[in-house]
Fold this sequence. Notes:
6 strands; Barwin-like endoglucanases; alpha/beta; globular; 6-stranded mixed beta barrel
Amino acid sequence: MKLALLLLALTSPPVRGEVRTMSTYSDHFEGKPMANGKIYQHSLKIVATYAYPLGTRLRLTLKDRSIEVLVSDRPHRKYGHRLDASRSVWSYLTNKAPLGLRKVHAEKIGGRR
């Protein structure tokens, strides 16, 4: 068993970035304006956070799944420490798991557009 775990650790690509708590947008926000002035849709590949400037591109990784997203919005100040992902991002990373909180790796891959 220890050998299998060691082999897995050696063959898995390293995950860089910071560990962040991810949640997802409520249905309430569909069709409402975001901080960048555009209209929110669940199908967009975006996140809301105060941890990075608007326009920053991030790679989010959860277990064996990664997706590139754009920081396009700001969450409620109460939740500023976390990433609020669009429903399409949440569904892809969690394999359509029920809503809740997940720990993800967030790696900055590009600056503002």
